[in-house]
Specification:
Layout (H helix, E strand, L loop, with lengths): L3 H7 L10 E6 L4 H6 L3 H9 L9 E5 L5 E7 L3 H4 L7 H6 L3 E6 L3 H13 L15 E3 L7 H19 L7 H14 L3 E6 L2 H4 L3 H7 L7 E7 L5 E6 L1 E5 L8 H4 L7 H15 L5 E11 L11 E3 L5 E3 L7 H14 L4 E6 L3 H7 L4 E5 L2 H14 L3 E4 L16 E2 L8 H10 L7 E5 L3 E2 L9 E2 L4 H11 L3
Parallel strand pairs: 1-3, 1-4, 4-5, 8-10, 8-13, 9-10, 12-16, 13-17, 14-15
Antiparallel strand pairs: 2-3, 6-7, 7-10, 11-12, 14-17, 18-19
Length: 467
């Protein structure tokens, strides 16, 4: 397992500026103008290869000795670029090894494209030898290279955690990853495990995880001594069978990613701590495996949460909101200035917005504005969903205070978010219902685990918390 510091060394900018070759970023309607300024041999090569500067296309131009002299990266037009992000990461995959530098790139796009290049260097190689792109980038001028390397390291940590299968990523392994991160940044960490969860009044975390021979636990670490208090809560269900409401085989196939909320929170936590943001950070991760055994929770059971609210279990596969409920209650007791939960919580969210958008819930107008602005600035798309009050009745079964899985199937992501909000107390609160998985490869985002919303939140924090 790569640690955050390992990832920083791996996903780093090149430093051999003297040997760097130029990568000319050319828009389609500017190609003829660019060619007119080039030597005849370059013009002939480009035209002979049919290069049109279409978005995502790359062409290496050789010198007299046959070695690369320069390269062209097609940048299409504004309409084409608006349909995606990290476009120059495609060039990173197409270029030969060695250092490269951007030429002709709009400075306003430099940060996004430089980060995309770093992220394109990620490869999950724990079980099969593979490498990221061999082409390295010289950090563009006026880009904070160290900051981007930290962000890339946080994303690499998230991807590594999600990509690791459950046989090697149980609650105890997730705890070890948290311990490594806490040690790296001199954070203070405590862990409550197994039956001790009951003694600390964390009954829902215990109930969800008690059927597994890998004990459930609540991981709690804190960092920072100045500034506003931020609490991050990440769903750490390391594998989800569905419990007694057993998932089908096809639905269970990707459940190693059900700790994607915790993985994303840890990646964001690394970014915050490595950048030394002036805030007090607390990370809460309920880490469990939702397994099947004789002592598994049953449909129809009524459980009492840390907050005292009773919950009817109408589906044991709606377990994520249960472990988050206790963690949110604990977090709210600390009266943070902002509390954020991240979870791969509902299939309804994926159906609503697909795998590329991070749906989130928030009522605070200033927080919403900060998140939307941050997401737009760092190319980390989000979509606000409604805490729709008329649906509150759907999560009230009558026999208990709350229902963990309302019947009917309508508004599944919204009712889950409303359920969680009941446990956030008076805290300023946002909830992210993410997918955490890239089903098909895209520039800077290989198929597999992916962080969603972390960079948007990092960009939002200065405004959201008046840092």
């Amino acid at each position: 397992m790569s640690t955050a510091s390992d990832a920083t060394r791996t996903l780093a900018f090149a430093t051999d500026e003297a040997g760097a070759l130029p990568l000319h970023v050319v828009e389609a309607d500017a190609l003829d103008t660019w060619l007119q300024a080039q030597p005849g041999a370059v013009q002939t090569w480009v035209r002979a290869n049919g290069f049109t500067a279409a978005l995502g296309k790359t062409l290496v131009v050789p010198g007299d000795d046959g070695a690369p002299l320069l390269a062209l990266a097609g940048y299409g037009d504004a309409a084409a670029r608006a349909r995606g992000r990290f476009h120059l990461a495609a060039a990173a995959a197409a270029l030969p090894a060695g250092p490269w530098r951007f030429e002709g790139l709009d400075p306003a796009r430099a940060e996004e494209e430089a980060l995309g290049w770093l992220l394109a260097g990620y490869a999950f190689d724990r079980y099969h030898a593979q490498t990221g792109n061999a082409a390295r980038l010289i950090a563009p001028e006026d880009v904070d290279a160290a900051r981007l390397e930290i962000i890339a390291a946080g994303e690499a940590l998230t991807r590594d955690l999600i990509n690791t299968p459950a046989n090697d990523m149980g609650p105890e392994t997730l705890e070890a990853a948290c311990a490594d991160l806490a040690k790296t940044h001199s954070a203070q960490m405590t862990v409550t495990t197994g039956a001790d969860l009951l003694g600390r009044n964390l009954p829902l975390i215990h109930a969800v995880g008690r059927a597994s021979d890998r004990a459930p636990r609540l991981i709690d670490f804190s960092w920072g001594t100045r500034g506003p208090a931020l609490t991050l809560v990440g769903k750490g269900v390391c594998f989800d069978t569905g419990g007694l409401n057993l998932k089908s085989g096809s639905s269970m196939g990707l459940m190693k990613k059900d700790m994607g909320g915790a993985a994303t929170v840890l990646g964001l936590a690394h970014m915050i701590m490595a950048l030394d943001l002036p805030l007090r950070l607390r990370v809460l991760i309920p880490a469990v495996e939702n397994a099947v055994s004789a002592n598994a929770m049953r449909p129809g059971d009524i459980l009492t949460s840390r907050s005292g609210k009773s919950i009817e279990i109408n589906n044991t596969d709606a377990e994520g909101r249960l472990v988050l409920a206790d963690a949110l209650s604990l977090g709210a007791e600390g009266a943070p200035d902002l509390m954020i939960s991240m979870a791969t919580l509902t299939g309804a969210a994926r159906v609503a917005v697909g795998p590329d958008l991070a749906p989130y819930y928030a009522d605070d107008a200033a927080l919403v504005a900060a998140i939307e602005d941050g997401a737009a600035r760092v190319a980390d798309p989000v979509w606000r969903m409604p805490f729709h009050a008329p649906y509150e009745a759907l999560i009230e079964p009558g026999i208990a205070d709350l229902d963990n899985a309302p019947s009917g199937g309508f508004a599944g992501s919204i009712t889950a978010a409303l359920f969680l909000r009941r446990f956030a107390g008076d805290a300023r609160y946002a909830h992210f219902d993410i997918y955490g998985w890239n089903p098909t490869a895209a520039p800077a985002r290989p198929k597999g685990g992916v962080g969603m919303g972390a960079r948007a939140l990092l960009a939002a924090l200065p405004k959201a918390l008046s840092l």
